[in-house]
Amino acid sequence: MDDFPEQYELLGFFESEPEFTDNIDEVPCYYNRMTYRTTRGSDVIYCVIELASGLLNLVWEKSGTLVSSLNLEEITSLAVISNNGEEKLIAKFGDSSGLLDFELQLKPSVHVKWGNER
Q1: How high is the pLDDT of residue 71?
Q2: Can you give the pLDDT at residue 66?
Q3: pLDDT at residue 116, as a whole number
């Protein structure tokens, strides 16, 4: 992944500390697997990010029922964007993938946007 957010940006977006697969003192964040868990009312979001591998896995549950489960690969960049009270995590894919940007919004409400180009 070429561009990615700072740790404090991800912490602010998810409003939770990540769980790391490997000891953070031995394996830097970029090469580690970070799992974030956040709750917004009846919505629970689990997001696993592997920066070096370009992977993002998302599980969204509402009142204990699965709403969405996505496994995204070949992400080229990841950014946290705040604008007019909305916060989004945006994942971009390579130009040749034919995939539109993936957007995860947590504030003011949970929303996911993603698709294919026509």
Answers
A1: 95
A2: 97
A3: 76
Nearby residues of 22 by Cβ (< 8 Å), 6 or more positions away = 31, 32, 33
Residues 81 and 9: beta-carbon distance below 8 Å? no
Portion of the chain with pLDDT greater than 70, in percent: 97
HEC readout, the chain: CCECCCHHHHHHHHCCCCEECCCCCCCCHHHCCEEEEEEECCEEEEEEEECCCCEEEEEEEECCEEEEEEEECCEEEEEEEEECCEEEEEEEECHHHCECCEEEEEECCCEEECCECC
Query: How many alpha carbons lie under 13 Å from residue 108 in its C-beta half-sphere?
Result: 3
Say how far apart CA 59 and CA 94 lie, in whole Å. Answer: 23
Using a cut of 0.70, tell me whether the model's pTM lies above it.
yes
List the chain residues with pLDDT less than 70.
1, 117-118
Measure the CA–CA gap between 14 and 49, rounded to whole angstroms.
12
